[in-house]
Amino acid sequence: MDNALYVGLSRQMTLRRQLDIVANNVANANTTGFKVEDLMVRTEQAKPAKTLDGAAPVKFVLDSGVARDFSQGALTKTGGDFDLAIEGKGFFKVQTAGGERYTRDGRFTTNQEGVLVTQAGNQVLDEGGGQITIDPTLGPVHIGKDGTVSQGAVRVGKIAVVRPDDLSSLAKDGDNLYRNTANTSLQPVQDAQVQQGMLEASNVNSVLEITKLIEIQRAYEGVAKMMDNTAELSRSAVERLGKLN
């Protein structure tokens, strides 16, 4: 296969991967606490498919991972007692069947036992790693900006807000959750505020992402056309050589 076809194929593979990521961004534009992602690419040199004297190395385009933008999304007022948003850097800590996970999605509620849980039923953890139980007989729930949960004069607990030293150690784990891949403890956050009755919107810019979809499609079509032209040139060359012989 011609070198240009190899290079074009490598580019098409990264464009398809980027298309999936951008389409996922668009699909989650209204997902609470969702963080926009983008594909990182790199080039890698390799020997040409056809070895020629003095031929320069061929550079292929490769998938180098996904970059995630953890910047703050807009805060939207809901008025719900258990709707919480983090203003600043940090994550809520929840307990799942697979262990501790982290999220910016503060759409919390209580289960039949009065335990504060996520929409998927995972327990929201307090600063000590325990569950937070709401007693409806104690009256309205107030959640302070430091995460302290109280009912009247009774302190119920304090919602944990933590973050890792390196955000790249967090990997997506489904249900708008992240898991810690570095196996190091996430530290409590002191400079973030918990806002009761509010939710953090996705930080996806829908117009920008749709524009990216169009650009990716055009780039893919351009590479495909280049590959078709290269293949046609090769066929024409072989046909001419055959006629000369």
Describe the model:
The two termini are 23 Å apart. The protein is an alpha+beta fold. The longest helix is centred in the last third of the chain and has 39 residues, at 206-244. The chain contains two helices and 18 strands. It folds into two domains: 3-71 and 204-244, no CATH class; 75-200, no CATH class. A hairpin with a 5-residue loop joins strand 14 and strand 15. Helix 1 runs antiparallel to helix 2. Strands 5, 6, 9, 13 and 16 form a five-stranded antiparallel β-sheet that branches. A three-stranded antiparallel β-sheet has the order 10-11-12, with no helix packed on it. The model has no long low-confidence stretch (mean pLDDT 88). The radius of gyration is 26 Å and the shape is elongated.
List the helices and strands and how they pair.
Layout: H1 3-27, E1 37-46, E2 58-68, E3 75-77, E4 84-87, E5 91-96, E6 99-103, E7 109-110, E8 116-117, E9 123-124, E10 142-143, E11 148-151, E12 154-158, E13 161-163, E14 170-172, E15 178-180, E16 187-188, E17 193-196, E18 198-200, H2 206-244
Antiparallel strand pairs: 1-2, 3-18, 4-17, 5-6, 5-9, 5-13, 7-8, 10-11, 11-12, 13-16, 14-15
Helix pairs in contact: 1-2
Structural class: alpha+beta
Low-confidence stretches at least 5 residues in length (pLDDT < 50)? none
Q: What is the total tally of β strands?
A: 18
Return Rg in Å.
26 Å
Q: How would you spell out the order of helices and strands? A: HEEEEEEEEEEEEEEEEEEH
Helical content (DSSP H or I, runs of 4+): 25-40%
- How many helical elements? 2
**Structural domains: how many:** 2
Please report the distance between the alpha carbons of the first and last residues: 23 Å
Q: Major beta sheet, specifics?
A: 5 strands, antiparallel
Question: What portion of residues belong to β-strands?
Answer: 25-35%
Taken from the alpha-carbon principal axes, the silhouette is elongated
Arithmetic mean of pLDDT: 88
